[in-house]
Amino acid sequence: MRVIAGSAKHLNLKTIEGMDTRPTTDRIKETLFNMIQTDIPGCRFLDLFSGSGAIGIEALSRGAAEAVLVESAPKAAECIRENLKFTHLEEHAELMQTDVFQALSRLRGRGAYDFIFMDPPYNHELEKQVLEALRGSDLVDDYTVIITEASLQTDFSYLDSLGYQMKKYKKYKTNAHVFIEKKDA
């Protein structure tokens, strides 16, 4: 796995051994960032369930002003620290080694993020729980784009009832990126 573009382009990132994480492939990561690249420079990026940190690091490499990476697993958090140091992007990054819901609580009062990316373990409805936690939070405003990496079987029919709408759905062979925003008032 490598950084696709920007200041850390072509640098190889470490990943965690085993099946505890599911790194986003370079091809899928490249497709994702091609869709959002014009909005990345200067943005505030929140990466939930960060794994190796590859998504947050890609955002920083492409010019995000800041990125908060949230990961509770100690081995994965150490991997993120090493990747941030190796790519020389640690200055604009904050690693929160904690549960995602505790992190969301601690981040309150810091203002809205331009992008909130989450890649939770599949088929546990964690994306729904995160969206419920973000509802009414100052971490999300009318311009925030929430991107969820999910299995193809993940049901998002509840979005409307939580005050969200699906902006875009990008399907891959085994998973999808779901672009979500607050529903128009």
Automatic annotation (TrEMBL):
The name this protein goes by in its record: 16S rRNA (Guanine(966)-N(2))-methyltransferase RsmD
Leading EC class: transferase
Alphabetic keyword roster: Methyltransferase, Transferase
Lineage of the species this protein comes from: Bacteria, Bacillati, Bacillota, Clostridia, Lachnospirales
GO molecular function, one term: 16S rRNA (guanine(966)-N(2))-methyltransferase activity
Provenance organism: Muricoprocola aceti
Gene3D superfamilies listed in its UniProt record: Vaccinia Virus protein VP39
CDD domains, A to Z: AdoMet_MTases (cd02440)
Keyword flag Magnesium: no
SUPFAM superfamilies: S-adenosyl-L-methionine-dependent methyltransferases
InterPro entries, alphabetized: DNA_methylase_N6_adenine_CS (IPR002052), RNA_MeTrfase_RsmD (IPR004398), SAM-dependent_MTases_sf (IPR029063)
EC number of this enzyme: 2.1.1.171
Keyword hit for Transferase: yes
